[in-house]
Amino acid sequence: xxxxxxxxxxxxxxxxxxxxxxxxxxxxxxxxxxxxxxxxxxxxxxxxxxxxxxxxxxxxxxxxxxxxxxxxxxxxxxxxxxxxxxxxxxxxxxxxxxxxxxxxxxxxxxxxxxxxxxxxxxxxxxxxxxxxxxxxxxxxxxxxxxxxxxxxxxxxxxxxxxxxxxxxxxxxxxxxxxxxxxxxxxxxxxxxxxxxxxxxxxxxxxxxxxxxxxxxxxxxxxxxxxxxxxxxxxxxxxxxxxxxxxxxxxxxxxxxxxxxxxxxxxxxxxxxxxxxxxxxxxxxxxxxxxxxxxxxxxxxxxxxxxxxxxxxxxxxxxxxxxxxxxxxxxxxxxxxxxxxxxxxxxxxxxxxxxxxxxxxxxxxxxxxxxxxxxxxxxxxxx
Amino acid sequence: xxxxxxxxxxxxxxxxxxxxxxxxxxxxxxxxxxxxxxxxxxxxxxxxxxxxxxxxxxxxxxxxxxxxxxxxxxxxxxxxxxxxxxxxxxxxxxxxxxxxxxxxxxxxxxxxxxxxxxxxxxxxxxxxxxxxxxxxxxxxxxxxxxxxxxxxxxxxxxxxxxxxxxxxxxxxxxxxxxxxxxxxxxxxxxxxxxxxxxxxxxxxxxxxxxxxxxxxxxxxxxxxxxxxxxxxxxxxxxxxxxxxxxxxxxxxxxxxxxxxxxxxxxxxxxxxxxxxxxxxxxxxxxxxxxxxxxxxxxxxxxxxxxxxxxxxxxxxxxxxxxxxxxxxxxxxxxxxxxxxxxxxxxxxxxxxxxxxxxxxxxxxxxxxxxxxxxxxxxxxx
Lengths: 382, 381
What we know:
heterodimer; A: alpha/beta; VC0802-like; Rossmann fold; nine-stranded mixed beta sheet; 15 helices; about 20% strand; elongated; B: alpha/beta; Aspartate Aminotransferase, domain 2; Aspartate Aminotransferase, domain 1; 2 domains; seven-stranded mixed beta sheet; three-stranded antiparallel beta sheet; about 40% helix
């Protein structure tokens, strides 16, 4: 018989009086990820799930807040049986030269003490598995034995994605383009517990249906970690057209950027979300200079989180690969940002100038109209 | 208007009869045509009948037809089945990717390839072909009708030149876009190999054929159970092949009237386009042009944007060929080869007609363009 032993971030255990809330939310999120088939139990700072498979481990591992999952084998509290399982597990491991055995004895009635158990099981392993040595200070692998209602034996741990339980930090609106950066930004904030609602700006007929499908696919990849996600598809053509027709060419990008965040803020209000999340990285393009960010932020009431602001493309790409959004992000369909690119966009826009240029636009009507024609898609993780 | 489908060179809507035949084969003739039992024999009869229909349409013998998975496989087979390392191959700059990309790869592998230029009509220069012929020229592979602009190559002249210059050089014609639109008579044309595809003639996808002249030595691409005269192994795609046969049979009905109808559609469309400013028709028109394909550039409007705008009116077209609609590896090379600038090529839309289209659809489309153009040109700054 075996089960899954789940370890969660120590940060959660440090939450004092709120600890229970975080733990319960974590369990709810695991439940959402794995369905109702299994029993999930919380016990002395661990979570136990009464079953194990690689597929199940992969789902649990990707739940924010979890730092590691292990397959634990359960046998009777009998030293020979424990030893047998430990030997079996060690034989399956590759590239392991040194080990140690660590024992926790919760059942104080068990006749041997922790150190004695460790020593004895270690001896059995040495005798039966070739090419191993004990190293108590820096072992390649730790064989864990827990004596409780039964004996639990586990060795190799699979790393979890860590972070805080999804939804524990409130809700934010992610500006999701088809690029590499914004899904990573969303992932990073979701990992800190922020529930995500996504907005994508669709400029039909200037962007294709495939560009939209690509963004839905990206949301789906995020949903692997977050559970189902709501995606707002904002009809953005009219806003863009008016900006292009009426505003100075070198300010198109920054004004468009301001409209995007303001539409996102309108979505945030509707969703009762309290932050925006973007994939901006300092200085990456004209609209991502410090001056541009300042101008973008100036008329917003809620904070804008830019988790990748201090990261290089290469670091962002590494995360994109890890969370499997990269291959989708590099599909070559244009999004609304790449269609109208002025030859020399302003890199140091001034708020006064921009506000003046925007005066010709009927902002309220444009945003209200965009909100009224919003398409809302529920994206599931399957 | 319901749905206006002007993308018939990408693929066509299958005939009802074809769909019925495919479904019937799947439910009733599921046996392996190679099986020894009665069911196998019945399936084999279906194969035979389809082969006869395809052969009859191009005036070939049934044993000269190999069924393939489509036009691309037929093209690949025609090239790889004939040439050996060190051979010289002649083609054009405007072939389908299944020829161009194959030859580009082979070029890196000690094959000698000549790409013939085309003029502003998309037609090769026969003198250049004559001069390109060498002692070791083994294959001349040229498309009958270009898929993006509808230019028709002078196949008779090409064959005459090749025969006069060489005894061993073989001629392969990619006739995928010509099938069902031009009379194809392999005896009159005198070609050695010819590729066909079912889904361009209201047949099923995933099936095509290669004609190879009796006596020609061909090497198979796929080794296996020896189906298709030991030249194309793999259990036969009977539903597809039989559907292909049905589509071929239907082509013969009313052939001339269908062509005349499409010509009328094209002429009506060109006439209507005259009302618009800054439009360029990239197809050659006249006798060198197949009526079914009309390539048009709308100046100041990117083709892709035009395509999506037409979608709003349920009008479906292509920018370039469907394969080249994706960027990067499949960038459009046909229009630049005809001398168009990048901007002109990017603005190109391909309208491709079938005899199933109507004059009303043309009028509706002209009307839609009339509404779309000013909107799209509004931001042309």
